[in-house]
Amino acid sequence: QVHLVESGGGLVQAGGSRGLSCQAIGTILSIDNMAWYRQAPGQQREFVASVTGVGTTNYGYSVKGRFTISRDNAQNTVHLQMNSLQPEDSAVYYCNANGERTVLPRYFEVWGQGVLVTVSS
């Protein structure tokens, strides 16, 4: 009923920038939290950034000051602007969103398929 479409992954040189987008599609009444997580090979999935429905943002320590999360509620889209990328940022980035549907079941919590970001030195 609700799924997330991610875009923007790819290869970028160290020190460069990349933007990721994630759009929620479906019978959506409202979206509460939208977030990005990432997982590198052999590592745990870690929190990257989140933004609430009223625009409150939160960032993981490793990306604070370099990444910016924003959302466009009219498009049900969250964007992650990644600056000063380092090889350590290489990972599969997963979008996450939760909220309320216009139809039953009332609440949803979904993950995107993940998009690969590779930062080369």
Written description of the protein model:
By secondary structure, the protein is mainly β. Helix content is 0%, strand content 61%. The strands form 2 sheets. Strands 2, 4, 5, 6, 9, 10 and 11 form a 7-stranded mixed beta sheet that branches. A 4-stranded antiparallel beta sheet has the order 1-3-8-7, with no helix packed on it. A hairpin with a 6-residue loop joins strand 4 (28-39) and strand 5. The radius of gyration is 14 Å and the shape is elongated. 31% of the residues are buried.
Q: Note the gap between the termini.
A: 40 Å
Strand count = 11
Q: Could you state the order of secondary-structure elements as H and E?
A: EEEEEEEEEEE
Q: How helical, in percent, are the residues? A: under 10%
Beta-strand residue fraction: over 45%
| Integer-rounded radius of gyration | 14 Å
Question: What composes the largest sheet?
Answer: 7 strands, mixed
- Write down the overall mean pLDDT: 97
The assigned structural class equals: mainly beta
Question: What descriptors fit this protein?
Answer:
7-stranded mixed sheet; mainly beta; 4-stranded antiparallel sheet; 121 residues; 11 strands; elongated
Brief rundown of the structure:
Helices cover 0% and strands 61% of the residues.
Give a topology summary.
Elements: E1 2-7, E2 10-13, E3 18-26, E4 28-39, E5 46-51, E6 57-59, E7 67-72, E8 77-82, E9 91-101, E10 107-111, E11 115-120
